[in-house]
Write a structure and sequence with these properties.
By secondary structure, the protein is of the alpha/beta class. It has 12 helices and 12 strands. Helix 5 runs antiparallel to helix 6. The longest helix is centred in the last third of the chain and has 19 residues. The radius of gyration is 20 Å and the shape is globular. It starts with a strand and ends with a helix.
């Protein structure tokens, strides 16, 4: 797919250079790419002489990324955020409804720049650089460093490595490209301990996540001859496990990893009338395209949506449609 752009890399750097104050924001329930790209971009802004570079997100930093330098300085919205900044940079999303409470601060900015690798019809902001050829927004942030002539400092290298490694599934997903490996190699040349980073990011989990995973996977079901797998997480599960939204991350991969599975789905109950859906797929099933009919989106092999339906109803509607499509293709 061709990129959508009304600024190129040099144009995005120019916006950063002229800003006295920058606010960097990413999406709800941030993943490794969102956090890593946010921190890498903040480092670039400071290197370019930006007087004030603040990071803001609707949700706290998830456990696997809290060790990253600067992660604990990422703020969450509160009533004290009144002063408009010169430039708000929205990274790893292009949609207002993915910003949550951070959207108010973005709207107060004098100018908004979007940097993303998720292709959408109408990205938010005054200026945007949206290019789905990047495996992760972290790759885009690395190339912004190059366009600015700025060396990537050690802390930023850690953050950007996490961004790229997580959005490629440890360089296992089909979005991994030769450019991905070249950029990752450059980060390794800064002296990163990739074994330690991978252990923290991919292997560590809280007791709450373990309990939530035990509950969800214990109720997993398979349909369409094993080609469709799904699990559900209720509000009662979240309370019993003492888990937050970030503890749900990665559970879906255990369903997706079963040999027969083409489509894996996790349904999470947000309230009595709202259900969040996460989907992972392979063998040509386009998750993002499928979830567009429900107002969702993402990548072809990894997408999500929020449905205005109770958990049981949302599960019934999606499973019938997915099973019929998978059944036709097998």
């Amino acid at each position: 797919m061709a990129p959508m752009s009304n600024v190129d890399l040099a144009g995005a750097v120019a916006r950063l250079r002229k800003a006295g104050s920058v606010l960097i924001v990413s999406h709800l329930h941030p993943d490794g790419d969102a956090i890593g790209s946010t921190l890498g971009l903040a480092a670039l802004a400071r290197a370019l002489g930006v007087r004030e570079a603040q990071c803001l997100n609707n949700d706290p930093v998830p456990f696997p990324y809290q060790w990253l330098p600067g992660a604990r300085d990422i703020k969450i919205p509160d009533n004290a955020w009144d002063a408009p900044c010169d430039l708000a940079v929205v990274v790893d999303t292009s949609a207002w409804d993915r910003l949550g409470g951070a959207a108010d601060a973005v709207r107060k900015a004098r100018e908004v720049l979007v940097l993303d690798h998720h292709l959408v019809d109408a990205p938010l902001g005054d200026h945007y650089l949206v290019d789905p050829s990047y495996a992760a927004s972290g790759e885009l942030v690395m190339e912004l460093h190059d366009a600015a002539g700025v060396d990537i400092e050690r802390a930023a290298a850690q953050a950007l490595y996490v961004a790229i490694a997580t959005d490629t599934g440890g360089f296992r997903f089909s979005n991994t490209t030769p450019r991905t490996h070249r950029l990752a190699a450059r980060l390794l040349e800064t002296g990163l301990d990739v074994a330690a980073i991978s252990e923290r990011v991919f292997d560590g989990m809280t007791p709450a996540k373990f309990e939530l995973m035990r509950r969800a996977l214990g109720r997993a079901e398979f349909h369409a001859g094993g080609a469709v797998a799904h699990a559900s997480i209720s509000r009662a599960d979240m309370r019993a496990a003492q888990a937050g939204p970030n503890e749900t991350e990665g559970i879906i991969n255990y369903l997706r990893n079963v040999d027969s599975v083409q489509v894996a789905i996790v349904f999470r109950e947000l309230d009595e009338t709202t259900t969040k859906v996460s989907m992972r797929s392979r063998n040509g099933f386009n998750s993002a395209e499928f979830l567009q009919q429900f107002g969702g989106g993402g990548h072809a092999l990894a997408a999500g949506a929020t449905l205005a339906l109770p958990l049981e109803e949302a599960r019934g509607v999606l499973l019938d449609r997915v099973a019929s499509i998978v059944g036709e293709s097998t």
